[in-house]
Amino acid sequence: MGYAVKRIPDPAHPTGDTIASLSRRSFFARQLVWGPNSWTTHWEFTHNHIGALLEKAEPGGVPTGFTSNNAWNLNPLDFHADGTLKEQDYVAAVGLKTSTDRSGVAISVYNNADHTGGKPFDPNELNQCEPGYDVPDLASAGTIQNDVLIDVQAAPWYGANCDWASDWDLPTLSPVSGPTCNTFDVGTTVKVGVNLGDDVARRCPTYITCQPGQNCCIGRFDAGVHGAVKLTVPCGAGTTALSICCTATPGKLK
After folding, report:
1. How many Cα atoms sit within 13 Å of 148 on the Cβ side?
2. Cα separation of 181 and 165, whole Å?
3. Burial 168-201 (b: 16+ CB within 10 A, else e)
4. How far apart are CA 68 and CA 73, in angstroms?
5. Is the dihedral of CA 53, 54, 58, 62 positive or negative?
6. pLDDT tens digits, the chain, 254 residues: what are they?
7. CB atoms closer than 10 angstroms to residue 121
């Protein structure tokens, strides 16, 4: 699990080699190989981290029908009321949470169409129209593209304001305006949607150029004496060119 960076034509040399863009996107690989070492399993912290996706409720609590900081109730081994696994919901949530490009952002995550699909409010699912979150942002069907990328669909704002959407050619998903809120129509083309808090400023999920004296991830790196980094993916990988950017220390490229 990490970020891929899309390679794009070099504006300074249109007929030459491509360059790494500043647009990153979440990938989900089954194996990571670094030199002689291979990893097929990863661990995540629960507190304010991706491990929260697996937790049913806060310690000592019960599901409320909405996410909390440390419990999203999307364990891929758990089941919905209709008997289907939550595995695609989990993959979608991973892609959406990691696409916010920052920590501490107020978001509302939902997979139950209790406002757009006529379903009842379900405390064991994540419901639409949580009060205070009326800005539809991103959505995902929980599918894998180009063998490693988690699919993402974006609100129209991204296409009008972010190279990120055009670099990756992300589909635009228009929100549904209802009597009580604005939301994505989950359960049809997407599994999970995310709304931003009413007072949260939008932001393009791209790397910024380095400020003087700072260390930044710019989408290209030299593996040096430690050997190359590669992803092991199934045969028949897609043709999209990717550069994998790995940070061993936050903000520092290793």
Report:
1. 28
2. 25
3. bebeebebbeeeebbbbbbbeebbbbbbbeeebe
4. 9
5. positive
6. 778 787 888 878 878 788 887 788 888 888 888 899 998 887 777 776 788 899 999 999 999 999 998 999 999 999 999 999 999 999 999 999 988 767 778 999 999 999 999 999 999 999 999 999 999 999 999 999 988 899 999 999 999 998 889 989 999 999 999 888 999 999 989 999 999 999 998 888 876 555 445 555 444 333 443 443 433 333 333 333 344 444 344 433 33
7. 12
Residue listed under structure tokens 């970020």: 3
- Tell me how far apart the terminal alpha carbons of the chain are, to the nearest angstrom: 17
Question: Which tokens in the block code for residue 213?
Answer: 């004296």
**Is the distance from CB of 191 to CB of 88 less than 8 angstroms?**
yes
**Residue whose tokens read 């409320």:** 64
